[in-house]
Prior knowledge:
This protein is mainly alpha-helical.
Amino acid sequence: xxxxxxxxxxxxxxxxxxxxxxxxxxxxxxxxxxxxxxxxxxxxxxxxxxxxxxxxxxxxxxxxxxxxxxxxxxxxxxxxxxxxxxxxxxxxxxxxxxxxxxxxxxxxxxxxxxxxxxxxxxxxxxxxxxxxxxxxxxxxxxxxxxxxxxxxxxxxxxxxxxxxxxxxxxxxxxxxxxxxxxxxxxxxxxxxxxxxxxxxxxxxxxxxxxxxxxxxxxxxxxxxxxxxxxxxxxxxxxxxxxxxxxxxxxxxxxxxxxxxxxxxxxxxxxxxxxxxxxxxxxxxxxxxxxxxxxxxxxxxxxxxxxxxxxxxxxxxxxxxxxxxxxxxxxxxxxxxxxxxxxxxxxxxxxxxxxxxxxxxxxxxxxxxxxxxxxxxxxxxxxxxxxxxxxxxxxxxxxxxxxxxxxxxxxxxxxxxxxxxxxxxx
Length: 425
């Protein structure tokens, strides 16, 4: 890694100081150099603080703005060999990374401009059709997203793994629409065709079948039970380590049988964990329909004695309800939900991830309300106040991204205040 970084630094030095007059290869060299430096800085800037501290000790560091600027300059090298790679890195960051581990939106105006440019040049380009679909998807335009994902998927047959990417996105788009049957069908395709994580795909399918529980026939219920029995055997180990999401899923499979073959809104729980509320929050009618579903489930949990984890299930519903209320701008009610989850921390048997995640969501709510100092304290508490819960690293990535954005916002605010004073003088 160090040798790679040093090589790119040397390339950057050459790019700045060499006499390039009349050299036809400059744009190719420049786009490659900017792709490498930009990608490195962007990747490093996404790492949580505890990892960055260790890497900085060995001389590694990264700056997000530098990374994005370098990639944008590489994208501007028209006709060069690595221009398209810089373009795809920019689109990938703004349309995927920002929505999976970040707090704010990506630069959608930039994405729209790039996608329209590239589709004019490559009208049959499957990747740009895919990014067009994702662009519509992150804005909550689900019907348009489904149309473009289908175009992308059906436009080529050679690369089956690309189909799997489209199936994954189509699965979530149908989940957001509460079309559980279509979501189940796409997860079933992934389960039988993709080798990435059978446990993940199997549980996705099971979660959608759970949402249809009362409408399932006897054979489908047997299939659901067998699927949840099989999933633990599909757990993978990579470099001797289990995948955190698979460990979480296996606990949920055990929970299903411990709760008399029931789970509480498992598809919406997964939607939350994959940061789906950032997307459905753009369409209030969708949020309202999810809130109704959650409130109906609250009544069931309160009266059904088949749920031996009352506090865990209640806290899950409160967290999901708080997310809906926050996007509906019912901030006091949302805060009440998050604080209730935090207050029940000691009562939880299984879902110990809920209080730290609720603390994070409370910090984001305080940020939205303009309470920046409180938000920073709450986010710091979410990071350092809880240990040893499921999906801890996933939350730390989100906290790191949120705190970085909040620090940048505070610097901008202070800078604007300072400039206004100078202007007055």
